[in-house]
Structures are given as C-alpha cells and as structure tokens.
Amino acid sequence: MTGWSRRQVLKAALGAATVPLATTVPPLVSQARTAGAWRFRRGVNTWPWFALTREFPAPRTDYDWPPFQSQRPVPTSADLARLRASGLDFIRLPVDPGPFLAADAGQRAELMGMLDAAVDAARSADLGVIVNVQANGATHYWNPDRMYSSTVAPEFESYRALMSEIAERLQGKTAGTVALEPVNEPPQDCSSEAWPAVQASLLTAARVLGPSVPLLVTGGCGSMVRGLTALDPAPLADFEPILFTFHFYEPYLFSHQGAPWMREPVYRALNNVPWPASAGSLEQTLASVRARMARDTERSDEAKKAAYAETERVLKVYFDAQPDRRFIDGYLKQVSDWADRHGIARERIIMGEFGALRSDARYTAAPNPDRARYVADVRQSAEAASFPWAFWDLFDGMGMMDDTTRALDPAMVEALGLTMPAE
Q1: 3-state SS class at 31
Q2: Which whole number is the average pLDDT over 108-137?
C-alpha cells in the first residue's frame, strides 16, 4: 500500500475496468510447476511483524535497537495455528528493509535470525510464507526512492545485496513452501522503462544464492492491475521459478474511505460509502461527510469547502457508475486476459493484497456490513478467476484479528470463505 496507488486513485478508481487491452502476443512464459502445485492459495498479510520501526531523525540514517516498536502486534504460535485451522494456507510477511540495511554486522545477523524464526514459526503451523520486502515510504532515508527508484539509486546496490542474502536464507527452507517478493508496490509508472530494469537486476541477485526459491514479480505503478497488464513477462522466464502478483483495492473511494494516511483531502472526511453502491445513496453519504467535516477543527472553512466540492464530484461518479461485483469482475478480467495471452497459468498469479478499512474506535470508514460484502465479492471474484489471494491485513484497521484480544472477526472470516477455528 504505497504512495503511488494512493496518489493516483482518483484517476484510476473507476476508469481502468474498461480500458482496452493490447492485442499483441509475446512469447509464452514457461511453466515452472503444474497448475495447483504451489503452496499459496489463501493467505493473509502479517504486517506489522517486521514493520513500525524506530528510526532516528535526519541527518542520522540508523535505527534504535531493537529497531521495531515493542507494542506492535506480532502473531504468536497459537495465532498462526488458528490461522491455519481457519483454512488459510500461507502468510505474506512484509519486512521493512531499512533496519537490515542500516545495521552493523552483528545486528544484521540478529535480524536475519529473527526473520528465520518467523518463517520457521509459520512453517511449524503448516503455513507457506511469502517474504515480501516492503520499504517504508515515510522513512526519511531508507525509502523506495533511495533504494530502487532506478538501478543507479543511491542505495540500490545495498538493497540488491540484501535480496541475495534473504534468498540464500530461504533456499535452505522446505522447497515449495517459501518464496521471496523483492519489492512491494513499485513506485514507477505502469509503462516505466526503469522498473523492468530494476526488477531484473533484483531477480538476478536473488538467483545467485537462491537458485530455486520461487520469486514473485509484478508490474509498476504500485502493483495495480494496470501495472501487471503492462508487464512483458517473456524476459522473466530466465528467472523461473516465478509467480506473478498484483494488488486490488478498487474502487479506492470505498476501500480507503476515511484512511488517515491518504494524501488527497477527499479521504479525510469520507465515510458511509456503501458497497455495492446500490446499498445506499449519494445523499446519505454526503450527509455523513458533512457531519464529519463539521467536527473537523484542524482545517479552515475554506479548505473544507474545497474538499467537500471535490468529494461531491467523485461521489457522483461513484454512484453513477453503481459499482458492484461486476465492477470487480471487469477489473480481474484484464488480468485473466493478460494471463491467457501470455500462456500463464492463473494459479501463478497471486492477488497479494486486498481489503478495506473498517469503522471502529480508531477509524470512521466503511460501514462494517458493507466492508464484509466488499471483501466477499473481491475474494469470490479472485477465486472464480483461479487467482490465489492474500488478505490485507491480519491486524490494524484493515485486519481480521483484534490487536489485543487476538479474537478473529467472524464477519471477515465468513467473507473470506474461512471457518472460525475452535477455541
């Protein structure tokens, strides 16, 4: 969930489902495994296990030790066992590379040991693991721009070496049950020439010490659908075994309503957007937006007036479009068509993130019944297309497990087609 897709959402959220696809047919990508042989079908992201860091402010470029905030929720062995019992078969493990790259030799070895232990804990619970290296765009130094905006980025070689080191660690794990995803949501544009060069260089580095570790590849522009469908997979056949991945949060007006990290002023007061759109009305949603804006004491009346005008405009587009399950199917058909054109088995294309922010004590966002309907629709559409998936997230406002009590959300369990495990 990086900045590119959030900044571009108002242009992309409702239009891309009808964008015509290219008709040229490049060479087929070879099949590394038979369909269904991968150990990644239904998963969940486990942020912030290796995130929420304690970096020092500029001009320093290092982190306090230990580098991760102690109060962050981390899944226990019992939590992992319950996830497996619910019907999930893998976790996607986001890992902030900053602490690894800033650490001295001793600290780095300790961090690698922690990562080994996390992977082993998941494997002990009979869960596959995708280690997703996920840079923090809000960090002043160890951020995507400095690490992999291009092959000449200031810290690209350090990042590249880290991919090789992690691949080596995973090479020693149980074959077919662990994989490496070198970059989360590339910031380059969909048609960028820089991203394919960056990705190929990172895959090359991973293959040096991890010759058989499955590697996840993706397109530019934040791993959105349009990024994947712009990707030419033919050159990537040299790095087999590979899997492909994309993220799905469309329409963002629903999934990210009320998200405090969104930069566009529309999202700050956005709430009570229904799913499907026919479950509510423009008038009801705008009334909820006005009520929330009235409680906002930080922005000026002028700023709120401008934000409301823009909110009203985009919500009219939303309700005119009447998005529902068919809207999701239209987006995912682009991925299916891309896979068919390139001869890629759909079981090799993982929807690595999807979800929606909930309304709770911290957030005012999607009504929870609407959120459940949306998550169910996205999951069912992915499964109908034979795409594996990983729900975002285990914890926090998009989560399926309470940070403190570790209780699973029955509505999310049902929406994901899972089973509430016995206590």
Answers
A1: coil
A2: 98
Helix (H, G, I), strand (E, B) or coil at 191: coil
**3-class SS of residue 158:** helix
Please report which confidence band the pLDDT of residue 174 belongs to, taking 50, 70 and 90 as the band edges: confident
Q: Under 8 Å CB-to-CB from 161, ≥6 apart: which residues?
A: 205
For the chain, give every domain's residue range: 3-252+325-358+368-415
Q: What is the pLDDT of residue 125?
A: 98
- Taking only Cα atoms into account, the Rg of the chain, rounded to an integer number of angstroms, comes to 21
Looking at residue 176, what is its pLDDT? 84
Distance CA 171, CA 58 (A): 36
Supply the angle between the helices 105-124 and 156-171 in degrees, to the nearest 10.
40
Between 33 and 415, the higher pLDDT residue = 415
CA distance 323 to 4: 23
Q: What tokens appear for 131 in the block?
A: 């280690």
Domain 3-252+325-358+368-415 falls under CATH 3.40.430.10: no
CB atoms within 10 A of CB 405: 7
- The Cα–Cα gap between 22 and 330 comes to 16
Q: CA-to-CA distance for 125 and 118, rounded, in angstroms? A: 11
**Residue 111: pLDDT over 90:** yes
The whole-chain average pLDDT of the chain stands at: 91
* Closest C-alpha to 380, from 348, 414, 343: 414
